[in-house]
Write a structure and sequence with these properties.
With about 190 residues, this protein is an all-alpha fold. The chain is built from eight helices and no strands.
C-alpha cells in the first residue's frame, strides 16, 4: 500500500483545476446545456448498445450527421464501455424472451455465455445479437429521455458557474523557473 506525501497530494490537487480549465473549452465548445445534455445522453445510449464493434463508428456517423461534439460523444461512449459489457447478457436474455421469432435459444446458453461459447453457432449468435439489439431499441428511448431530463438541469447549473481560476495553471516555464538542481545523496551500503 503506498501513501502519498503532502506535496504529492498538493500537486495533484493543483493539476486537476489546470486540467479542467484546459479540457472544459474543448468539451463544451459553443454547446448550449441542451446540446450537451443531448450529446451525453446519446453517447450513453449508443455506448450501451449490445453490439461490441459498432458503437464507435455509429457515434462518428451520428455526430457528423447532427453536428454534435465528436470528442464529447466518443468520450462518453468509451466511458460507458464497462456498462455496455455488464448489460450484454441482460439484453440478450431480454431479447430472447421478448422476441420469439427465429431460433429459440436455451436459457442455459444465456446464463454463462463464456462457458458455452462452443455451443453457439454463427447463425445462432447473429439471431441472438439481433434480438438483443431489438430489446435495446425498445428500452433506449425512455432511458435516453430520462437521462436528458436528468442531465439538463445539472449542466445548466454548471454552465452558470464561473470558469475555474487560472492561478493554479501550471506551465512549463513556471516549472523551469522553480526547478532547483540539488544533488541527490544516496546512503552508502555496507
Amino acid at each position: 500500500m503506498s501513501t502519498t506525501t503532502g506535496s504529492e497530494a498538493s500537486r495533484r490537487r493543483s493539476l486537476v483545476p489546470a486540467f479542467r480549465h484546459r479540457l472544459q473549452p474543448i468539451l463544451t465548445s459553443g454547446l448550449t446545456p441542451k446540446r450537451l445534455a443531448a450529446t451525453c445522453s446519446l453517447g450513453i445510449a449508443i455506448g450501451t448498445m449490445p453490439l461490441l464493434l459498432g458503437t464507435t463508428l455509429l457515434c462518428l456517423v451520428i455526430a457528423a450527421r447532427f453536428r454534435l461534439n465528436q470528442l464529447l460523444l466518443q468520450t462518453v461512449n468509451y466511458l460507458v464501455y464497462p456498462l455496455q459489457l455488464s448489460l450484454l447478457v441482460p439484453f440478450y436474455t431480454l431479447g430472447n424472451h421478448w422476441f420469439t421469432w427465429g431460433t429459440p435459444i436455451p436459457d442455459h446458453l444465456l446464463a454463462n455465455p463464456l462457458t458455452h461459447s462452443n455451443d453457439i453457432s454463427v447463425g445462432l449468435a447473429g439471431s441472438l445479437t439481433l434480438k438483443a439489439v431489438a430489446a435495446w431499441l425498445v428500452t433506449v428511448s425512455p432511458t435516453s429521455v430520462f437521462l436528458y431530463l436528468l442531465l439538463l438541469p445539472v449542466l445548466t447549473h454548471l454552465k452558470k458557474l464561473p470558469p475555474p481560476s487560472t492561478t493554479t495553471d501550471v506551465t512549463q516555464d513556471s516549472v523551469e523557473r522553480n526547478h532547483v538542481d540539488t544533488p541527490v545523496h544516496y546512503p552508502h551500503s555496507m
